[in-house]
Amino acid sequence: MATDQLIQMLTQGVWDTLYVTVVSTLLAYVIGIPLGVLLYGTTSGSLFPNKAVNSVVGVIVNVLRSIPFIILLILTQPVAKAMVGSKLGNQAFIVYLVIAAAPFVARMIESSLREVDSGVIEAAQSMGSNNFQIICKVLIPEAKPSLLVGSAIAITTILGYTPMTYLVGGGGLGQLAIQYGIYRSNATMMYAASLLIILLVQIMQEVLSAVAKKSDKRIRK
Q1: N or C: which end of the chain has fewer CB within 10 A?
Q2: Tens digit of each residue's pLDDT (9 = 90 or more) over 46-67
Q3: The pLDDT value given to residue 1
Q4: If we measure between CA atoms, which residue out of 138, 140, 149, 128 comes closest to residue 207?
Q5: 139 part of a folded domain
């Protein structure tokens, strides 16, 4: 394989991997944030306690989290078919990733919100703030460092799943590493694609961790 062709394929692989990872992460948070807030808010002694809702949402989240991704991918193929018109390709794989990641994100959101000092919440309530105001202006800002650390974990976890795009005919660095590196015995492609995946994980982890550290008021001088 010519060097120019190798570079071109790896460049496209990086783009496909980033596209799937970023879009999946964003959509997982669109679903996961409301679920996480709901799990936190409906807990006994929280903002709007509701044992029935908390139990139902908790069971759904726990069940989805407990299913191995490869099995979840198979089980949710009809969902992908209904949503994007196909069970194959990057668009379908995004659906699988979102279904797998959203419950994980929801639990991280819930955990981050639980870390907020109850005194801050009580102070907001004493000043007449309603639940929506407390969530938007108190809980989320106070939990921001923890939320950012969680987002770093989420995006790197999702990135770690992207090599499985090969199973549904999608593209990306994982597909290049498997199809060309393993099945066609192209060691250069396999090592190059694997190295780029590792590099992407490290960059995302470091950037988001740095942002989280900078936003943490507790460690400011």
Answers
A1: C
A2: 888 899 999 999 999 999 999 9
A3: 60
A4: 149
A5: yes
User: Phi, psi at residue 37, to the nearest 5°?
Assistant: -65, -40
**Distance between CA 82 and CA 89 in Å, rounded?**
14
pTM of the prediction? 0.87
Where residue 126 sits, what CATH number does that domain have?
Answer: 1.10.3720.10
What's the total number of domains in the chain? 1
- Please indicate, yes or no, if residue 185 is contained in any of the structural domains: yes
Percent of the chain's residues with pLDDT above 70? 96
Cα distance between residue 170 and residue 175, in whole Å: 7
Domain boundaries, position 136: 3-216
Residue 200 has pLDDT above 80, yes or no: yes
